Amino acid sequence: MKRMMIKSNNNNHKNNASYGRLSYNNSNNTTSSSAASRDEEFEWEMRPGGMLVQKRIGTSTITSTVPNFRLRIAFGALRYEISVNSQATFGEVKKLVSAESGLEPGEQKLIFRGKERENGEYLDTCGVKDGSKVILIEDPTSIEKRFIERRKNAKIQTVHRAISDVSMEIDKYAEQVSEMEKSISSGIKVSELQITTLIEMLMRQAIKLDNIQTEGETAAQKNLQGKRVQKIVETLDAVKISNGRLKHVVVTNKWETFNPNPPATTSVAANSTTATWEIFD
């Protein structure tokens, strides 16, 4: 009887042990399945500091769950204050600062705690808090690029003015040539010296154009004015030939003349006076 009880107890112990194993396995399965579901629900990413955190998907998700805070920006003697999401990146901060400073994001360097921050670094990871101060400096390379660009623009403006001055001179000479053509077509001869002088002045403008250093758009403008000079000179050559075929026009005026000592053409009979005398005895 005692053996049977012991056996029965052993059987109960085995049953309890097997039951314990079964419930343990079920709990493990439940835990692993829930962990798998969480892994499927969230994606993970590695922060710059080496911390594995939930991946941030889209700015809208961040702004809806994470509040904004104030960030003070020092740019030389200027001070700005912007509102930014606490989990934003320094690259996003540059975009916000661009509207205040006038610097493009690529022209900015952001310094926090004595270290330049990369665009992909997150504010909260770097320890940025509400009211933190960030120093903004302009990238030296962008300063040099801006200086080169300004110098280039100034040179282009100078070239534009030089070409414009030549163009105005050509316009004046073109008007004179047009007047010459009208005179010659009307049969009025033009002075040869005037034609020669105009050709010489136009050639001087051509030399000015040659001395102007151009590129791109200004080169096209320079070539256009050069072609204008060439065309006007060819027109003057034709005018010179037509002018040489004309004879000088002599204009005479008929004047009525008066002679102060007219010849004595009056007959003596007409001028003589006759008288009849009566004789008295």
Automatic annotation (TrEMBL):
Record domain Ubiquitin-like: where: 71-137
Record's protein name: Ubiquitin-like domain-containing protein
Pfam families (alphabetical): BAG, ubiquitin
Gene from which the chain derives: LOC115698162
Region feature Disordered, mapped onto this chain: 1-40
Protein keywords: Chaperone
An annotated GO cellular component: cytoplasm
Presence of keyword Chaperone: yes
UniProt feature, compositional bias: Low complexity: 25-36
One record GO biological process: protein stabilization
Biological source species: Cannabis sativa
MF terms in GO: adenyl-nucleotide exchange factor activity; protein-folding chaperone binding
